[in-house]
Write a structure and sequence with these properties.
heterodimer; A: 269 residues; alpha/beta; Rossmann fold; 6-stranded mixed sheet; 4-stranded antiparallel sheet; 7 helices; 34% helix; 25% strand; B: 317 residues; mainly alpha; MetI-like fold; 3 domains; 14 helices; flat; disordered N terminus
């Protein structure tokens, strides 16, 4: 295996409830992500997958343990780890173009280069003709495309995506998944993709971290070897999806919920 | 250009007539609908023209003006009722002539005072004081409020002082402010400033405090430094609240102006009212009140227009 880019080592995170009671959001999480890998984090709600992404982004600090990128500890958020949020988080006061240019301006990219890059990414996500629209004039799918273009434009080493397609309808979601894969193949970069959808994770990822709740922890790392584009009706793919789902159900709801309790093939590290 | 007659071919017609029954055929031709990546500019503009052709043309300007004016019937009814009551009521009770002069008397009072050149002076003096005071309240209150909203630590230091001064009514400051500034513009401006300052601060504070966490995080992960984050995220996010604060501040300031001018002033609408009281000229009193209401309405309208202009993304919300 090539060099690990992201190293999450023995990370625990304590959150506080409204009453001030400490809650274990994450317990002893360990995972490594390779350069240019498409890595997904799946799990039911409450398993701490978004917390883990926030820690990698630098929005929060681990209570215990450490997270390094290329050997450097993360101290604050930055454009090297751009985030695509579930609810898009577009700046309502900026147009499509201004949103995409936001990070480039912060990076002090020369004006002409900014223009070229913005134009490139507007085309890449298929938003030509909508350059001067405000976000609230766009549909959900288009907003998410702006958000992806905005994150890609700063050319981050790592793209962090927090359930980016969860609030889209099925047709738009599948279209966006295909588009994301195309973009990722054209401009390789490390993607850490949080989702609660096992189907989505298996369609997109090289490897999948499967998390379980109370306390939030990584239970399995599953490799997905099928070549892309992956056919969701391929029997082997169907079998893997079913296996992971059954196993996860068992983890969350107890032994009687999963039929046989088969574990998915463990990754040989 | 008349939007009712677009000279564009319908964008649907460029598709073969029969093929549209099978979406497979359509896909082969690369014309799958709803995929903006396949859209071209010509098609989009012809769709826009088609949309324009479907809506009825806007009514002529005079009809729109008429429609708006006709909605003022309640105001008109009110004025007419007032006129009738004071006219016929004074036959039953002659005191009503003085207690409640009819609108016609108010109008003749206005022409009377305007002809003597005093009316405009009173209006301009009052406006000048309000605008100066609200301007100062905005200049000081907005930055203070935003800073307090953005930094909890700063807020916890300043808040006790602010919350101590806030419940003191501006009117209670009048005696002291006369000692400080004497009777004149500066003293009244100070009273209005006190009244307008707190709504401006508190609304700006709320705006900056309640900025969407995700927008802040988006800014941070795209490389914004603290100062840039403030200018590009916190400020525009708080702007609707800032404008609300300014509108409320202007309204309250306008009220404080009259109160301030009633007690001690050499000119202004409040002075005019108070002076008329000593002269027993209730028509002047009513004129002053009507003008205060009308000017307040105009100022608020101008403020709303300014907000619309400053926040094009916020229109219609």
């Amino acid at each position: 295996m090539s060099a690990m880019q992201v190293d999450v080592a023995n990370v625990s995170k304590v959150h506080f409830s409204m009453k001030g009671e400490p809650l274990l959001a994450l317990l002893d999480v360990n995972l490594q992500v390779e350069k240019n890998e498409f890595f997904s984090i799946v799990g039911p709600s409450g398993c701490g997958k978004t917390t883990l992404l926030n820690l990698i982004a630098g929005f929060e600090r681990p209570t215990r343990g450490r997270i390094t990128v290329d050997g450097q500890a993360i101290s604050a958020p930055g454009w090297q780890r751009a985030v695509v949020f579930q609810e898009y988080a577009l700046f309502p006061w900026y147009t499509v173009v201004q949103n995409i240019r936001y990070g480039l301006r912060r990076k002090r990219v020369p004006e002409a280069e900014q223009k070229r890059l913005v134009d490139h990414y507007v085309g890449l996500v298929g938003l030509r003709g909508f350059e001067s629209r405000y976000p609230r004039e766009l549909s959900g799918g288009m907003r998410q495309r702006v958000s992806i273009a905005r994150a890609l434009a700063v050319n981050p080493a790592i793209l962090l995506m927090d359930e980016p397609f969860a609030s889209l309808d099925i047709q738009t979601r599948e279209y966006m998944q295909d588009e994301l894969l195309k973009i990722w193949e054209r401009e390789p970069k490390t993607v850490i993709f949080v989702t609660h959808s096992i189907d989505e994770a298996i369609k997109l990822s090289d490897r999948i971290a499967i998390m379980a709740p109370r306390p939030g922890r990584v239970e399995e790392i599953q490799s997905v070897m099928f070549s892309r584009p992956r056919d969701p009706t391929d029997p082997a793919v169907v079998r893997l999806i079913a296996e992971v789902k059954r196993w996860l159900r068992q983890q969350v709801f107890g032994a009687e919920a999963g039929d046989t309790g088969d574990r998915p093939a463990r990754e040989t590290a | 250009m008349n939007p009712a007659t677009p000279r564009v071919v319908s964008p649907i017609e460029d598709r073969p007539a029969k093929a549209s029954s099978s979406h497979l055929r359509r896909d082969e031709q690369g014309k799958s609908l709803g995929n903006p990546a396949h859209d071209d500019a010509a098609r989009r503009s012809s769709l826009a023209a088609l949309a324009a052709s479907m809506v009825p043309p806007p009514p002529p300007a005079w009809r729109r003006v008429l429609a708006r004016v006709s909605r003022l019937w309640l105001v008109v009814a009110f004025i007419v009722a007032w006129q009738l009551i004071s006219m016929y009521g004074s036959r039953i009770n002659p005191q009503l002539e003085v207690m409640m002069p009819p609108p016609s008397a108010v109008v003749s009072a206005a022409t009377d005072l305007a002809a003597r050149g005093v009316l405009l002076t009173h209006i301009l003096d009052s406006l000048k004081r309000v605008l100066l005071a609200v301007g100062a309240a905005t200049l000081l209150g907005v930055p203070l409020g935003l800073a307090m909203g953005w930094s909890p630590r700063f807020r916890s230091v300043v808040d006790p002082v602010l919350e101590f001064i806030r419940p003191i009514p501006p009117l209670a400051w009048i005696p002291l402010s006369i000692l400080w500034f004497g009777i004149g513009d500066l003293q009244i401006v100070y009273i209005i400033f006190l009244a307008a300052f707190f709504p401006v601060v508190l609304n700006s504070l709320a705006g900056a405090r309640d900025v969407d966490t995700y927008l802040v995080r988006a800014g941070l992960c795209l490389g914004a430094r603290p100062r840039e984050l403030f200018v590009t995220v916190v400020l525009p996010a708080a702007l609707p609240h800032v404008f609300t604060g300014m509108r409320i501040g202007l309204g309250i300031g306008w009220m404080a102006l009259v109160a301030g001018e009633l007690v001690a002033a050499p000119s202004g609408l409040g002075y005019m009212i108070n002076n008329a009281r000593t002269l027993f000229r209730s028509d002047y009193i009513l004129l002053g009140m009507v003008l205060i209401g009308a000017l307040g309405l105009v100022l608020d309208y101008l403020m709303r227009q300014a907000a619309r202009f400053a926040m094009p993304w916020h229109r219609g919300q």
